[in-house]
Amino acid sequence: MTAFNPFSIVLLVLSSAFQNKVTVAAHAKDACGPRGACRCFPQSPKETVDCGWLGLTDLPTGIPANVSALYLQRNEIKKLDEESFQDMMILETLDISYNKLADFPEYLSSKLIELRLAGNKLTKFKKDFFLRLSNLQVLDISYNKLADFPEYLSSKLIELNVGNNQLGNMDLAILSPLKMLQVLWLENNDISYTSTAFVSGMDLLTELYLRGNYIKILSARSFINKPYLKILDLANNNMKIESPRALSCLVNVETLFLSGNKIENISNESFHSFNHTKTL
């Protein structure tokens, strides 16, 4: 006879309750309120609404117009109407990453500071989509199917993640107006580039991730004027180092990844300024 295990019963009840919650949330109409699907945190005059991880297939109705932070990550949303965010005039943070979106509404609040769209099925943005988002500081559009780098990005961007897309022969000169940028992810995009100063203009960079591309050559000008760069990932590029000075200008780098390249030897001159390096 099998012994009675009260602990198993408790687990079964909790699991069933969680599944029911997700099922109800997936078909719920209202975001907030007594029977709302989401977690809503009013902080007058703004409100935070968290609808993440609920199995939602559609955007809930009833999201307050004064929402300033809206989290919709890790759901099953496939489509949004053009007017989905039209009434959210003070929206500053929007996270709708890891859903199933193939396109995205054109209108968003011009006050938006942080936008996360990673892990969807986006192939492109309308040409002037980012033109209205002049206050954007954080943008994550990684793990999509983008073949073209977005135009008219905000000059106020501090963090930009476009990693794991399909950018191919992207002209990195398009990044030069982003003078405030501090963290840039471009890994695994099959970017083919042979120019010498390929990250010019972004003098405030602290982290740069270029792993898994086709950047062929490092020259003496590749990282010129990058005094704040601390993390540099160049692994898996089949790259050659043209000049010892290509690395010697990285005076503050703490972490450097160079594996998976065609580097046969590196002279001592390349590392004479590496006083802060912890990982190589």
Automatic annotation (TrEMBL):
UniProt keyword list: Leucine-rich repeat, Receptor, Repeat, Signal
SUPFAM superfamilies to which the protein is assigned, alphabetical: L domain-like
Signal peptide interval: 1-17
Pfam families: LRR_8
PANTHER family: SLIT RELATED LEUCINE-RICH REPEAT NEURONAL PROTEIN, TIR DOMAIN-CONTAINING PROTEIN
Protein name: Leucine-rich repeat-containing G-protein coupled receptor 4
Species whose genome carries this gene: Holothuria leucospilota
